[in-house]
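Friendly challenge for the regulars: who can give me the structure tokens for this chain first? No prize, just bragging rights.
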Amino acid sequence: MKNSLLLLFLSLSVVVCAQNNSKFIQKDISVSPFIDGTILTPETETKSPLVILIADSGPTDRDGNQQMMTNNHLKFLAEGLYKEGIATFRYDKRIIKQMKDRTINEESIRFDDFIKDAKDVVAYFKRSNAFSKVYVLGHGQGATVGVIAAQEGVDGFMSIAGYGRSVDDAIVAQLSEDAPGLKDNARNAFDELEANGSTQNYSQGLASIFRPSLQSFIKSWMKYDPSVEVKKLDIPVLIVVGDRDLQVLASEGEVLKNAKPDATFVLIKNMNHPLKEMKGTDDNLVNQKSYNEPRRPVIPELIETIASFINNNH
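First reply, four minutes later:
Bragging rights claimed.
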């Protein structure tokens, strides 16, 4: 469980690019002072649908990478959807720019900042009227951001390896599976944080979550429950989980599905949290190694599932 927590909070002009003998027409766009990203738009006779990709926790860039963790999962996902005739926009989280500008202050970060950024991206592309439909796809933490941004009048929402309940309840559930000795301590610390705005009564094994500089951010994240937010959506919803995910239990997707019975639910066998295929091994060390394998592709079933969902609702 210690490794799972570290993975979760490790965190906190047109160019034609050739890769793997394939060409992708892409353009870098600044949506706001905080948001820089890349759009891939396939050449089609009619307007293509657009998927806005929202990244997971931590200082994650548009490709799905962090300073000490490079696996390119969002880049590969965008390129895979491009081949299916689907446009994508993926962007650096605002903390990437703040780190580059040396203006980052962990104590001042709030979950609502990420929600505002996602809403700004949605508004930008809705105004453009350049695409047949606009979808929001959130990965991990980005799924909680995305389910709220999707309430801004988009055409569909996709939760990929996202939580089904508030982050505190989800982490306590994960601990009950992987480190039951820390479960009660975590629950008490979360409750104290919610009631008092801070907590000091936590095990060192939970310091990656409850370190003082991160507590205000965690508290701001706790107030959002994806199962409550998804009920506000009157649009097609896709929920995808993997059975080799070390960070988010597959049962979180079931929680979300129960809250939104008309959603499409897909369990992808052998898919881990960075969306890679873990077929033929049950070794968690091999699973963790894939977080730093930039050439390992995204599992093909994920791209097929997303493309099918969009085509069925297009």
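The two ends are 41 Å apart (CA to CA). Strands lie at 14-19, 22-32, 35-40, 50-54, 87-91, 134-139, 156-160, 237-242, 264-268. Your move, everyone else.
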